[in-house]
């Protein structure tokens, strides 16, 4: 015996399951973007925390008591808190891209906001490390030094690289040229993400005086990051120049082709015209 309205019964039973399946991709679509926006907020918190750090007083060759006194200074807690915020933000950077690719929910909003959040976090960190807040006074001599190892011109060089690469990407990706990050670009991001929190921790817990091990580590990290950042921009410049030269070569070929066609057309028209004699008739000589 056939059950009445069986079709309606099946639709009513299946529809909640279908609705759940349809809602799940919708929720997944927003998670990477929410992580990106969270990183923007964390980047601002990170910069604000560092803006309240005050210059420190350190000893050139600190004893155990001197080191404890330096750790107990007012800005140490802010440095630790800023480091924690930075690490969390860096984790969201790796997570949102992984989820977007895994779930295949990459969006135009994410492609715009993700690099912007990265630059705000990284460049914001280096800008703050170059401020007078990271000037330290040597207790014995009264002289000052940039304890972070980051000079203003270094930040300008990093900023120039980011602006140039961003401009190149915007101009050439519209023409279909692939400017996705290469190995140097990824190495640059990893090194930057390691350098900033390590500098903060060395300043917070160490005593990076002029000839200390901490100062040497900071100097090596900063210079390695600067060189890698600058070198990572060269492939983008090379690819942009190659694309421009290829375009110019194609334009020259088109212009030469047009001139050749015009020349051939003109020669054909001249061959059809026969010279006239002095009497006005057609010449018999061919």
Task: Using brief descriptors, characterize the structure shown.
3-stranded mixed beta sheet; 73% helix; mainly alpha; 3 strands; 7 helices; Four Helix Bundle (Hemerythrin (Met), subunit A); disordered C terminus; 286 residues
Describe this structure in words.
It is a single chain. The protein is mainly α. It has a single domain (28-262), classed as Four Helix Bundle (Hemerythrin (Met), subunit A), CATH 1.20.120. The chain has 7 helices and 3 strands, in the order αβαααββααα. It has a 3-stranded mixed β-sheet with strand order 1-2-3.
Q: Tell me, rounded to a whole number, the average pLDDT.
A: 80
> Class, according to the CATH hierarchy?
Mainly Alpha
Q: SSE order in H/E notation? A: HEHHHEEHHH
Spatially, the strands of the biggest sheet line up as 1-2-3
Overall tally of domains: 1
Gap between N and C termini = 102 Å
Strand composition percent? under 5%
